[in-house]
Write the structure tokens for this entry.
Amino acid sequence: MLAPLILAASRSDKMRAFVSAAPGTKQVVARFIAGETVDQVVRVVEDAAAKGLEVTLDVVGEDITTVEQSHAARDAYLELIGRLKELELGTRAEMSVKLSMFGQSLEGGHELALANVRPVVEAAAAIGTTVTLDAEDHTTLDSMFAIHEELRKDFPQTGCVIQSYLFRTEDDARRLAASGSRVRLVKGAYKEPAEVAYQDKAEIDKAYVRILRILMEGDGYPMVGSHDPRLIAIAQELARRAGRKLDEYEFQMLYGIRSDEHLRLAAEGHRMRVYTAYGTDWYGYFMRRLAEKPANLLFFARSVLTKG
């Protein structure tokens, strides 16, 4: 199994240095990262809007070690929201945030992350959009859900992410569906122990379908985060059975992966949102993309060998 090794490497400073210096890295990173600056990524938003797509924007970088870095992350999102406002793109783009980037793992991190993310949520609401709290490893989730619940008191459109490979997620889905939350369901992209997570792909997929049924039959707004054609077809059928209209759920896929499918779903009238990451601290995000699909790793290895 290559995925656990790649995920372990995502935490290694030595591997970070090696991958960053590899000759073919820049070419492969560009496949998954939309740019390094706000100006670069807003052009991607404009292009997506012209094609009938929506986006969710992620400023990459989660392994922070200081309060000052957490404030810088907050300010990066506020800068992004300011540019979206100037270009009147607020209704086409929402934000995705990792609370670790906002200081969640630091001393007093729960309160710090909440204090940092609140002005981002407020600014997003002011331009007609919203924020989704990304799920990270299982040790962070109780804090994330508590912050999500707190933010929804004033900004009920605030979303969150749940991961089908965790045993706890069916219970989380029932609670969130009952409360009418916006919920993105993904399989999960962190290295989790067998005590808390399914390790077998087939079991993860079965759990995904069970959880998706809960969301589709609930009172919330499901966001189907998957590139799997079979799961996409199942999602459409579950939505039909639940009596959901096309604007009562959406599909989400990653920038640079299955782009033709993005356009196909949008052409069929579905809401299709592209998860678009940008920024300079791309390593952790990039390694998780390699871990998710062996073809991505082969593409990277081929690029390194041909550029060496």
User: Anything to note?
Assistant: The first strand starts at residue 54 and ends at 59. Strands lie at 54-59, 93-97, 131-133, 159-163, 182-186, 221-225, 250-254, 272-278. Residues 303-308 have pLDDT under 50 and may be disordered.
